[in-house]
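cron nightly-structures :: item 1 of 1
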Amino acid sequence: MTEYSIKTKTGEFLGLESDDCYIFKGIPYARAGRFEYAAVLSDYDKPIDARTPGPACMQKRAWPEFEHLEIPERQFYHKEYRDGQFFTYDEENSLNLNIFMPKSGDNLPVIVFFHGGGFDSGCINESPFDGTGLASRGCIVVFAQYRVSVFGYFTHEDIFSLNGRDGNFGLDDMVVALNWVKMNISQFNGNPDNVTVMGQSAGAMSIQYLLCSPKTDGLFGKAVMLSGAGLFPKFSLPRPCEQTRAYWTEVMELCGCRTLDEIKNISPKKLLEGVEKQKSLRKDNTFNTMPVIDHHLLPEGVDKLISGAKNMPLIIGITNNDMYTFLLAHVSKKYAKKHGAYLYYFDVDAPGDGNKAFHSSDIRYVFGTLSSSWRPYTEKDYAISRNMMDYLASFSATGNPNHEGAPKWEPYTGKVLRISRKGTGMGRTDNIKLLLNTLKGDPK
């Protein structure tokens, strides 16, 4: 690849030119100290070198002993998305973007993607996350880092006293990233009024929160949620920030800290050591380490906010061996029917082992990154991937995934777009398979 630079009203960015698109990586969109809300960068006083990936947000993966790869499920996903790659981690300089820009066109549709990772980990530089395939179809693709784990979802009464809100630093990062896109994407030939948000797993759940938030009006007009839609209000209901503070006070005590200033100034590793100890002592970690009712982005319970969620075109995806497989299929169908969403059922078992269409196995097909996997994908898989990218490109442009030459995809009323190696078309989920895969448990 050769170097390529672009000058915008906010600064100059030095990226790379591939055969299919222009690529800019590691563009900082905001700065924030620990447990501080980010402010969007609106001006750059020197050219930004965007030829190499930026650092990932600080998380447990920065230290092997915290990642626990001895657990089969974690080793599975490590091999799937990160094995053989080198990542850097930074706390204050990790709010950055990767942008894939088509070589031609103007006022192009924009897709902004938020990764998964259980609100606890994740990175936009993992091997599936390459926007080249969608960019070659006329979409600008933006991948955004956001804070995770304690750095993203810590709560404390002094934070509320200072800001009038508490927690949700990671969720707020997403809003800040969308504001950066709104301000700057036209300089990359994108249409700031035609933005689609897309996320997988925790990223998909986050999009549902953003759909409910009164602070995101005008930032996006379409949404794609993969492996995570429909999980609330009953199954992942954010708690009020006041109810999670005791959990984080215990973490502070495990770190030897008594005040907010003290825990803001210990090393990231020492902080994560306290988090690790807390996880071994508690069984309710998940509900204390995710988005909360912060009285700002989420001013009240999501079970109340959801009735006024933004009405816009939606795509929802589930796989045949997804997380909580049978339950997720049920709530996704219910959510899709209520909101008139396009729902697909990804029934393509991953080749190379017996883990079926595991949670997030559709991501490589969505981005056309099958070739960077160890799995022995065939031409049928590549054809499925091309079809899925075509649907997404059409949806990002018009709000309708249908296009000439593709099987018609109808909004969910009982039938889904069933995607399999036997073909793609409207049909029903295989509920017996979903139930059996649920009983099988996590991939190994």
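cron nightly-structures :: done
The two ends are 37 Å apart (CA to CA).
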